[in-house]
Amino acid sequence: MDNIGSYKVVASEELYSGKLRAVKEVIETCDGRRFVHETIEHPGAIVVLPVDDEKRIVCVSQYRHSVGKTVLELPAGTLEVDEEPIVCAQREIQEEIGFGARTLKPLGALYPAPGFCNEQQHLFFAAELFEQHAQCDEDEDITTIRLTVSEFERAIVSGDMQDAKSIALFMRARLEGLV
To answer: Which residues are catalytic, by number?
Structure first.
Protein backbone atom coordinates (compact mmCIF):
# COMPACT_ATOMS: atom_id res chain seq x y z
CA MET A 1 0.00 0.00 0.00
CA ASP A 2 2.95 2.35 0.57
CA ASN A 3 4.28 3.83 -2.69
CA ILE A 4 6.64 6.39 -1.18
CA GLY A 5 9.37 5.35 -3.64
CA SER A 6 7.23 6.74 -6.46
CA TYR A 7 7.69 10.29 -5.16
CA LYS A 8 10.81 12.33 -4.46
CA VAL A 9 11.34 15.86 -3.23
CA VAL A 10 13.35 17.87 -5.77
CA ALA A 11 13.09 21.27 -4.05
CA SER A 12 12.03 22.44 -0.61
CA GLU A 13 11.38 25.85 0.92
CA GLU A 14 10.49 26.72 4.51
CA LEU A 15 7.52 29.09 4.54
CA TYR A 16 7.12 29.47 8.31
CA SER A 17 8.68 28.16 11.51
CA GLY A 18 7.15 28.43 14.98
CA LYS A 19 5.16 25.92 17.07
CA LEU A 20 4.34 24.45 13.68
CA ARG A 21 6.39 24.55 10.50
CA ALA A 22 5.15 25.11 6.95
CA VAL A 23 7.11 23.86 3.96
CA LYS A 24 6.58 24.08 0.22
CA GLU A 25 8.05 21.22 -1.79
CA VAL A 26 8.34 20.35 -5.45
CA ILE A 27 7.57 16.66 -5.79
CA GLU A 28 8.54 14.49 -8.75
CA THR A 29 6.74 11.24 -9.56
CA CYS A 30 8.44 8.15 -11.01
CA ASP A 31 7.12 9.07 -14.49
CA GLY A 32 8.64 12.57 -14.31
CA ARG A 33 5.56 14.62 -13.46
CA ARG A 34 6.12 17.45 -11.00
CA PHE A 35 3.78 19.21 -8.63
CA VAL A 36 4.00 21.61 -5.69
CA HIS A 37 2.80 20.51 -2.27
CA GLU A 38 2.59 22.52 0.95
CA THR A 39 2.72 20.74 4.29
CA ILE A 40 2.17 21.88 7.84
CA GLU A 41 4.60 19.93 10.02
CA HIS A 42 3.22 19.17 13.50
CA PRO A 43 4.97 17.46 16.45
CA GLY A 44 2.00 15.14 17.05
CA ALA A 45 -0.72 15.09 19.65
CA ILE A 46 -2.87 12.95 21.93
CA VAL A 47 -6.61 12.69 22.44
CA VAL A 48 -8.11 11.10 25.56
CA LEU A 49 -11.60 9.74 26.20
CA PRO A 50 -11.86 9.85 30.01
CA VAL A 51 -14.74 7.97 31.66
CA ASP A 52 -15.59 8.62 35.31
CA ASP A 53 -16.86 6.10 37.89
CA GLU A 54 -20.45 6.89 36.88
CA LYS A 55 -19.66 5.95 33.23
CA ARG A 56 -19.87 9.57 32.08
CA ILE A 57 -17.46 10.93 29.49
CA VAL A 58 -15.49 13.93 30.73
CA CYS A 59 -15.41 16.52 27.93
CA VAL A 60 -13.99 19.99 27.74
CA SER A 61 -15.47 23.17 26.34
CA GLN A 62 -12.94 25.75 25.26
CA TYR A 63 -12.56 28.69 22.92
CA ARG A 64 -10.72 27.80 19.71
CA HIS A 65 -9.55 30.96 17.99
CA SER A 66 -8.90 29.24 14.64
CA VAL A 67 -12.65 28.62 14.26
CA GLY A 68 -13.74 31.64 16.28
CA LYS A 69 -15.95 29.83 18.77
CA THR A 70 -16.13 27.63 21.83
CA VAL A 71 -15.84 23.95 20.94
CA LEU A 72 -17.00 20.86 22.82
CA GLU A 73 -14.30 18.19 22.61
CA LEU A 74 -12.35 15.52 24.44
CA PRO A 75 -9.14 16.47 26.27
CA ALA A 76 -6.23 16.71 23.85
CA GLY A 77 -2.82 18.26 23.54
CA THR A 78 0.40 18.56 21.62
CA LEU A 79 3.40 16.36 22.35
CA GLU A 80 6.41 18.08 23.88
CA VAL A 81 9.86 17.39 22.38
CA ASP A 82 10.77 13.70 22.97
CA GLU A 83 7.61 13.14 25.06
CA GLU A 84 5.98 9.71 24.90
CA PRO A 85 2.29 9.86 23.93
CA ILE A 86 1.14 8.05 27.09
CA VAL A 87 3.02 10.57 29.26
CA CYS A 88 1.45 13.44 27.30
CA ALA A 89 -2.01 11.87 27.72
CA GLN A 90 -1.62 11.69 31.49
CA ARG A 91 -0.30 15.28 31.61
CA GLU A 92 -3.11 16.67 29.46
CA ILE A 93 -5.95 15.15 31.49
CA GLN A 94 -4.36 16.52 34.66
CA GLU A 95 -4.14 19.99 33.08
CA GLU A 96 -7.50 20.03 31.33
CA ILE A 97 -9.88 18.08 33.58
CA GLY A 98 -8.01 17.82 36.90
CA PHE A 99 -7.71 14.03 36.89
CA GLY A 100 -5.12 11.33 36.47
CA ALA A 101 -6.03 7.85 35.25
CA ARG A 102 -5.05 4.47 36.68
CA THR A 103 -6.12 2.89 33.38
CA LEU A 104 -4.86 4.51 30.20
CA LYS A 105 -5.42 2.23 27.21
CA PRO A 106 -3.89 3.11 23.81
CA LEU A 107 -6.41 2.88 20.95
CA GLY A 108 -4.15 3.52 17.98
CA ALA A 109 -3.59 6.72 16.07
CA LEU A 110 -5.10 8.79 13.29
CA TYR A 111 -4.15 11.52 10.84
CA PRO A 112 -6.71 14.33 11.13
CA ALA A 113 -5.77 16.19 7.93
CA PRO A 114 -3.29 14.16 5.82
CA GLY A 115 -3.89 16.27 2.72
CA PHE A 116 -1.88 19.16 4.15
CA CYS A 117 -0.59 18.25 7.63
CA ASN A 118 1.61 15.43 8.98
CA GLU A 119 0.07 15.53 12.48
CA GLN A 120 -0.52 12.12 14.03
CA GLN A 121 -2.93 11.98 16.96
CA HIS A 122 -2.50 9.14 19.48
CA LEU A 123 -5.79 7.94 20.95
CA PHE A 124 -6.33 6.84 24.56
CA PHE A 125 -9.18 5.55 26.70
CA ALA A 126 -8.88 6.61 30.36
CA ALA A 127 -10.70 5.07 33.33
CA GLU A 128 -10.30 4.74 37.09
CA LEU A 129 -9.91 8.50 37.32
CA PHE A 130 -8.55 10.16 40.46
CA GLU A 131 -8.20 13.81 41.33
CA GLN A 132 -4.84 15.20 40.22
CA HIS A 133 -4.54 18.79 39.06
CA ALA A 134 -1.88 20.45 36.95
CA GLN A 135 -1.67 24.00 35.59
CA CYS A 136 -3.46 24.61 32.28
CA ASP A 137 -1.64 26.27 29.40
CA GLU A 138 -1.87 30.07 29.48
CA ASP A 139 -4.13 30.20 26.41
CA GLU A 140 -6.65 27.69 27.80
CA ASP A 141 -9.91 28.65 29.47
CA ILE A 142 -11.55 25.26 29.94
CA THR A 143 -14.88 24.15 31.36
CA THR A 144 -15.44 20.44 31.96
CA ILE A 145 -18.72 18.84 30.97
CA ARG A 146 -19.70 15.27 31.78
CA LEU A 147 -21.92 13.47 29.30
CA THR A 148 -23.47 10.02 29.30
CA VAL A 149 -22.82 7.92 26.21
CA SER A 150 -26.34 8.75 24.97
CA GLU A 151 -25.78 12.47 25.54
CA PHE A 152 -22.44 12.31 23.70
CA GLU A 153 -24.13 10.56 20.77
CA ARG A 154 -26.92 13.17 20.73
CA ALA A 155 -24.28 15.93 20.74
CA ILE A 156 -22.75 14.38 17.61
CA VAL A 157 -26.12 14.10 15.84
CA SER A 158 -27.23 17.63 16.85
CA GLY A 159 -23.96 19.20 15.75
CA ASP A 160 -23.05 20.34 19.27
CA MET A 161 -20.02 18.02 18.96
CA GLN A 162 -18.18 19.04 15.77
CA ASP A 163 -14.64 18.14 16.78
CA ALA A 164 -13.52 15.36 14.43
CA LYS A 165 -10.81 13.91 16.69
CA SER A 166 -13.31 13.56 19.53
CA ILE A 167 -15.91 11.90 17.33
CA ALA A 168 -13.32 9.53 15.86
CA LEU A 169 -11.98 8.50 19.28
CA PHE A 170 -15.49 8.03 20.66
CA MET A 171 -16.40 5.78 17.71
CA ARG A 172 -13.19 3.78 18.11
CA ALA A 173 -13.91 3.23 21.84
CA ARG A 174 -17.56 2.44 21.06
CA LEU A 175 -16.60 -0.18 18.47
CA GLU A 176 -14.22 -1.78 20.99
CA GLY A 177 -17.01 -1.93 23.58
CA LEU A 178 -15.32 0.47 26.00
CA VAL A 179 -18.25 2.93 26.11
So the answer is: 138
